[in-house]
């Protein structure tokens, strides 16, 4: 079946079996090489990038749809996806322009409403445990530095911005490093992650002091070897203490 | 026009002119007599209470719809409404049961989809400045203590719970008293508000110390007179300092 035919089947199925005028978009954050990254898809036969997204079946909860869409579109399974915002502007993007760019069927031939409200989900993942895979709609699925995103399809640059803002607020009451970092990490790595999310430099001495004062990370005897500089110590989150502190609301980082 | 006819016109208009299968629900919090309250509507000719809600016009942003719905259904104008969660479970409530209770037209006679996804908004208001008014769909619009809500229509008890949870989290990085309290208030009043939202008792001496350390409230020379006990001092928020601290993220209350 050629791609045009596949697209027609895909949209006809959405028109028939999905909640009309609703979609889900997923912002998947990872952290690697001291960079906060986001997972993007390049649509088939184009240079156009966007977030993984899709539609909700009529008998499916929106949360379950988000998990399914992420799995189908990137191969990633069972992430902790967190709903963060619903994008409901009356004009979110130019529908005809997007359809043209992506070689989609003419919107006027579809039963779908004239606008789509999208429910945004985000997740923080351990970069090293994820193998992004393109699906039949796309040629490529890969990580991009948050600080150097291309101009995205739909209103997806805005969606990423709102997800980042949510992450920034969340930093003030829960340490996000827990999900984004590998099991063992150095203090400069953790600091760099915080700096990227907060979008401002932090003082290393203060940062280390504050983080350790939270009582949820422990310094290991191991050091990270092989770098050009003095080998830094490795740390890891103490999951029990972390859970207890989160429950008691004692994790503010200001 | 009798009520049955009015209802039919109302739903026919929604089927024709609104985004199918979507609604908005508003949780309006106020604080009075040392109680956190929420605004509820009693549907005409019933003893059934629910949140103010409604539908979104096809060419209207969801944010604008939320403002309009609140105005139409309660008479309250230009509140700062904050989107907090979209309720997208596949079965949120028993549709036939709700229609029967509210004397609504049989759902099978409508063009509306079989389920409705609802976008939740909340607002914090100065209780004394609001005059709730019932609309043509309802007999009564009034405040209820959050701690003593009746069994609500739809999934509205759950919606209020999620709004409260959001408020609790928000307390850790922004003082909600600013919107909920009248201009001048006593420290015990502020503490009672925090206790209601956090759902746990707080130590008066610690509370006062922490709140004053944030540097955003000032003690006035005035005292609240007329009570049975020692007259407590009045306080007010310093709006300039509040805005500055919020921008700098220095308002954690833990």
TrEMBL record, chains A, B:
Gene3D superfamilies the UniProt entry points to: Nucleoside Triphosphate Pyrophosphohydrolase, Winged helix-like DNA-binding domain superfamily/Winged helix DNA-binding domain
Ranges of residues in domain Nudix hydrolase: 19-168
InterPro entries, per the entry: NUDIX_hydrolase-like_dom_sf, NUDIX_hydrolase_dom, WH-like_DNA-bd_sf, WH_DNA-bd_sf, WHD_NrtR
Superkingdom of origin organism: Bacteria
SUPFAM superfamilies to which the protein is assigned, alphabetical: Nudix (SSF55811), Winged helix' DNA-binding domain (SSF46785)
Pfam families: NUDIX, WHD_NrtR
Classification via PANTHER family: ADP-RIBOSE PYROPHOSPHATASE, SLR1690 PROTEIN
Name of protein: NUDIX domain-containing protein
Originating species: Larkinella insperata
Lineage: Bacteria, Pseudomonadati, Bacteroidota, Cytophagia, Cytophagales
